Amino acid sequence: MKTKKESKENKIKKPVTIDYENKRLSIFYFLPLLLIAGFVPLIVHAKYIDLSNTAQALYWTGQEQYMDFFSYWKSRWIIVLTATALIFYAILYKQKKLPFKNLKQYYVPMGIYGVFVIISTIFAIDTQTAMWGFVDMYQGMFVLLSYVIITFLVINYVNSERDVNLFVNAFLFLMIVEGVIGVGQYFGFDFFQTKLGNSLIVPFNMAIENLSFTFGPKTIYGTLFNTNFVGSFAALMLPLSIGIFFSAKTRNKKIVSGIAVLLMIFTWIGCNSRAGYLGAAVGALFGIWLFRKMLVKHWKVSVGLVAAVLVTAVGLNAASDGALVNRLASLNITNAINNSKTSYGNDYKFKDIILGKNAFSIETNKQILNFKVENDKIYFMDENFDLLEITTSSNNIKINNNTKYWQLNNISIPQNYPGVTVKSYWDQTIDFYITEESVKILGSGGRLIEPLVAKRYEKLDGYEIFMSGRGYIWSRTIPMLKTYFIKGSGADNYPMAFPQDDIVAKLNIFMDANTVIDKPHNMYLQTAVNTGVLSLLALLAVWCIYIISSLKLYSKISFDSTDKFIGVSCLLGVIGYLIAAVFNDSITSVAPIFWIMLGMGISINIRLKKKRL
After folding, report:
1. 441-453 pLDDT, tens digit each
2. Which entry of 361, 369, 402, 580 is 20 to 30 Å from 164 by CA?
């Protein structure tokens, strides 16, 4: 006879445990995520963009028509493929073919980030931009939400070593194609400049003559838009390629992954991205510590890797006439800071630009040049308002006896608007536009503006030219964080939030007055301004939890399986990418790879921890 306690226990249903690791889900369901990993970064295809009657046109280069090759179609494919993968997941989860892994430590902060992305879109400076993204970037709300969904999906899709290998193969394909294109570009053979390359990236109904991109030989932009982004890509892929090589169980896999390693070493060194150098180097330090026993055990392979890096570096330095060594020397942060301080402090500097109704003036630390408009004529005067003699040639004007004004003596009368264009000795341009009401300056997007003095982070005073002008951009971005702490400016609204009319400061870092600052060259500031500081804190929580838990895990295990090699490679790639992100932005060409590797790393960690229990 059963007791009441036994009857009650029998009524309680025990949870059913499903062995997802031994369920071989059809590759078909993985395809959307595999395409994001191995195909989307390779997309280069022309898209005609009409910016007329949009807010973006006012904060861009003045072009109302633009041809995008690297970002637009990537962003659309990311959205479509992520949505497809999410639908597949919902169906498979309902059929109990995929799990919902209970990882609140990751899902909660990822969800908080997603909420703030939506909030920032609702309260955005420009809602249309916030939804679909700014020109050249296209990381609007739908793309940003896709990133976190991708991570969630990969966590729950990857349940076995076979699943890991599917993504490994996709990444191998990406590395080899990207590497081959990069090698050609470095030595002056750009596939996209060939007839075949042109036919692949330009629609048949679109005629583009003399197509060329801005990067010449001895550097690599691949399919990733910019050499800096190739650096972030290399920081992710180089440790992964090495991890795949060490984990390869067949001769063919060893050969293919070995080729990938060599191509990623070449891509990393040849892209000339200091952020990429730094990111991969920091990742390597963690890798040496984690792999210390294995590196000693397989010392011949370790020596071979070091030799491959050194031979490639020496060869590329010789091919670039020493440019690589000079680039590496600039990685000395202390020297870079000191040099920027010295250079900025001693150079010729603009102090003020004053606009009036019929007059304007340019004040520098060496001189004052006054302009007066009267009866459709322009007069040039010194600091005492004494008239200066000039000589005209066509529409060009020179001040006679110009010893005092040599830095500002490149003056012209434009044909397309009533005004004056003044260039300094270093070629910074100021376009003055004369209206009936007053004199204005032509700012970004053809806006008629008056100079403003932007709020700045004063501790960066004097370091404005640090790291190619990042010191200036960061010093003007940091004060914006207070304004956009909670709701952000809107996804991809950074160019509209930045004080673009900070003319004098731009001129002092050798920019034209109408130069557009469209990104902060720092992923953390980019996130904080676009979607809010709180959204950034949520992402930092995800990344820190993953990195700390991974370091604890991999510092105590022996590397004897594919999962362990790929898991630690994901960790090193994530660390390298996040280090490079101090100097680089998030971009559709590389960010999806990062989020997939993050999801794969988390999933592998969870499985390894379960096996240890």
Report:
1. 999 888 999 999 9
2. 580
